[in-house]
Amino acid sequence: MESDTKGKFSKVYDIRSSEMGPDYRLKNESAARYFQECFAQYCTSKHLAAFHISKDHLKWIITEMNIEFLDQMPRWSENVLVEVWLSEVKRYRLYVDFQLLYQGKVITRGDSSWYILNSETGRPANVSDIASRFELLPELTLGSRQKNSFAPEEGSPAEPFGEQHHKVTFFDLDFNYHVNNLCYTAIAFNPLPVEFLNKNILRSYSVKYSKETFLNDELYCRVQRQGDTLFHQLYNKKDDAEVCLLRSNWIPRQSETTT
């Protein structure tokens, strides 16, 4: 069931088995999939989905996303309520906030920024017409717009914490035939040591998308650690261009007895 009231679009989703971790709960890093699915359905309800606006040579492009995890995720076969809303509009940019609720409690929240690309000119399009079809709700789920640094602080030591190469496959691509934005998160986390992942859980992350990549591109990911914060840098090997920057924060994983 879905609803669109007071500027918020909401929908209930069952947790899928393919997105649960060893604790049988939704993996934190998979929560963004539910936000983007819900936003896509919101756009569809306004006749602004990708397949609608492509007729005018337009594309949705995400540029940044911030997400925080406040509590345990639901288990497989349980459900989560996802809410999305348009929180701010600028000439060439829209901001979409979101939150996930489990049993009435907010467990995940975040925001994102988007622009509309004119595929004929290769330039951003004015978003005013598209934005006018949504109800604006100036409610910032994170309290304020995040100003993130995606590089370790100068003057404090940062240790190498993993690196990995990834050749883009057909299954990394979305309907625009470039790498799906959610795949970059997986690529950024892949170099992390298994021992670290077993002992820690993702608390928050921010991601900045810089450049598209395509089939057979070879990506290089380097991770640095500074305290509890990890800095992930993704580059395209063919031109050394920055593709994606991500910073993530982690906390010790608590043991849990499954009931």
Q: In words, what does this structure look like?
A:
The chain has five helices and twelve strands. The chain is mainly β and 259 residues long. It folds into two domains: 1-144, Hotdog Thioesterase (Thiol Ester Dehydrase, Chain A), CATH 3.10.129.10; 148-253, Hotdog Thioesterase (Thiol Ester Dehydrase, Chain A), CATH 3.10.129. The model has no long low-confidence stretch (mean pLDDT 93).
What keywords describe this structure?
259 residues, mainly beta, Thiol Ester Dehydrase, Chain A, 2 domains, twelve-stranded antiparallel β-sheet, 15% helix, globular
Topology readout:
Layout: E1 2-5, E2 8-14, H1 31-45, H2 50-53, E3 58-69, E4 79-89, E5 94-102, E6 105-118, E7 123-125, H3 128-131, E8 159-167, H4 181-189, H5 194-199, E9 200-209, E10 218-226, E11 229-236, E12 241-252
Antiparallel strand pairs: 1-2, 2-4, 3-6, 3-9, 4-5, 5-6, 6-7, 8-10, 9-12, 10-11, 11-12
What are the low-pLDDT stretches, counting only 5+ consecutive residues below 50?
none
Instruction: Report the CATH architecture of the largest domain.
Output: Roll
Using the alpha-carbon principal axes, give the shape.
globular
Q: What is the distance, rounded to the nearest whole angstrom, between the alpha carbons of the first and last residues? A: 28 Å
**CATH topology (level 3) name of the largest domain:** Thiol Ester Dehydrase, Chain A
Q: Can you summarize the main beta sheet? A: 12 strands, antiparallel
Mean pLDDT: 93
The domain tally reads 2
Count the helices. How many?
A: 5
How many strand units? 12
